[in-house]
Design goal:
By secondary structure, the protein is an alpha+beta fold. About 25% of the residues lie in helices and about 25% in strands.
Length: about 425
């Protein structure tokens, strides 16, 4: 382990220094129509996106024997020039956000020429491919809200844990109370995902300024939570919004994934017993179910499905983006809708009355899409009032940005 760490440090020192030397002191001549993505450290450096959405990479590592770019799971071999610069141009990429890594002599690492983001359970580089007409995801000349990181004490995890909270423009100077969206990240990500990769603040600022969404607070938590003490939470009652919420499962270990009601209990306890009370104590929010929403992507979509739909006394608005619980991922099969959400098909009239907004979405190239369409059809055939949309793209952030952009426009009206 020590030897590997020393090798990685030496390797990154060589790559980093040569990258900085080349990009900081040389003036490049780039292909006409190419641009530097916003994810670059240096706008005058690499990577470069070409007019046809191919991407040019250059890495200066004269001592390396082999260098590759690993872009969304596709590896491109780079070619070395006489001066030690490695280059490659990829195939055209679909618009949106893509993680990538350098692979130098077999060691995978982040590219020092790119900003780093926490995704895929590690710090990764990323490249942003522009999409025409998506200025709604960019910073615009409108009133801007704030994103702040705060810490609360978790009685489930028995530790201090972070929240990233978006407050709309005017929050600091006003006195009004706001509705709240509790938004969940996917597997291999954390509380930073929606605020950084997902561009939540830009989306909300632009929607609110255009009058397409009501001003609201958005809370992004880290749902990778485990119960440290192993205590069962079965049968405990929590008072929220003047109602008694019974904790039906056991928060007795395991991170907050697991596509089952039982598997959701640790994070359900975290949300209902810790996160919501903290937000409602420290922020000016409307403290009733109709002014709470829960949504999320992938793993977070599964959490929102189970917790949101099975706790209508807590949430009246639920958004489920690109979840694999219905199929399209390993281990997902034979999803029993009525068993997982009792009453959704046998007492549909009551179910519909409990929710102001129930929205689902998925990328059109996502392996989950057909399974999602099938479950939506089954719901609609049974009379469930569910909104659904799909967008071009696979299991990636451009789809999820569009999902939030649409979901937010339905809320609290």
């Amino acid at each position: 382990m020590k030897t590997t760490g020393m090798m990685l440090t030496a390797l990154m020192s060589v790559v980093c220094c040569t990258q900085l030397a080349a990009q900081g002191f040389q003036r490049e001549s780039f292909p006409e129509g190419s641009y530097s993505p916003v994810t670059n450290i240096n706008i005058n450096g690499y990577p470069r996106v070409l007019s046809d959405n191919r991407v040019m990479f250059r890495v200066n590592a004269p001592q390396a024997q082999n260098v590759q770019i690993d872009l969304c799971g596709t590896k491109y071999d780079m070619n070395k020039s006489d001066n030690g610069a490695w280059t490659v141009t990829t195939n055209p990429q679909v618009p949106g956000y893509h993680y990538y890594s350098l692979v130098v002599d077999g060691v995978s690492t982040a590219d020092p020429a790119s900003q780093s983001f926490y995704g895929c359970s590690r710090w990764s580089s990323a490249i942003e491919i522009k999409e025409a007409g998506m200025d709604v995801f960019e910073v615009q000349d409108v009133p801007h809200g704030e994103v702040r990181t705060v810490y609360y004490y978790s009685k489930v995890d028995e530790s201090w844990r972070p929240l990233m909270i978006y407050t709309p423009a005017g929050y600091n100077d006003g006195k009004q109370d706001y509705p709240v969206v509790y938004i969940q990240h996917g597997g291999g990500e954390d509380h930073r995902g929606w605020m950084e990769q997902g561009r939540t603040a830009q989306i909300m600022d632009n929607l609110i300024a255009a009058g397409k969404a009501v001003p609201m607070i958005v809370v992004s938590s880290n749902s990778n939570v485990r119960s440290r003490n192993g205590r069962s939470s079965e049968g405990r009652q929590v008072r929220l919004d003047g109602r008694v919420v019974t904790d039906e499962g056991k928060a007795n270990g395991g991170f907050g994934g697991g596509y089952s009601w039982q598997g959701m209990q640790a994070f359900r306890s975290e949300m209902i017993e810790n996160i919501i009370p903290f937000v409602e104590k420290n922020y000016r929010v409307k403290k009733d179910r109709k002014n709470r929403a829960m949504c999320g992507l992938s793993m977070g979509g599964g959490q929102s499905f189970y917790i949101g739909l099975r706790d209508p006394e807590v949430f009246a608005n639920v958004g489920v983006f690109s979840t694999g619980m219905f199929g399209g991922i390993q281990g997902a099969s034979n999803f029993d809708l009525e068993k997982e959400v009792p009453g959704i098909l046998t007492d549909t009239k009551t179910f519909n009355k409990q929710f102001d907004v129930f929205f689902m979405s998925c990328g059109e190239q996502d392996p989950r899409i057909e399974y999602t369409r099938n479950i939506v059809k089954k719901m609609r055939d049974g009379g469930v009032e569910v909104k659904f949309n799909s967008y071009p793209g696979d299991h990636e952030w451009q789809v999820w940005r569009k999902s939030l952009h649409e979901f937010a426009q339905y809320l609290f009206k």
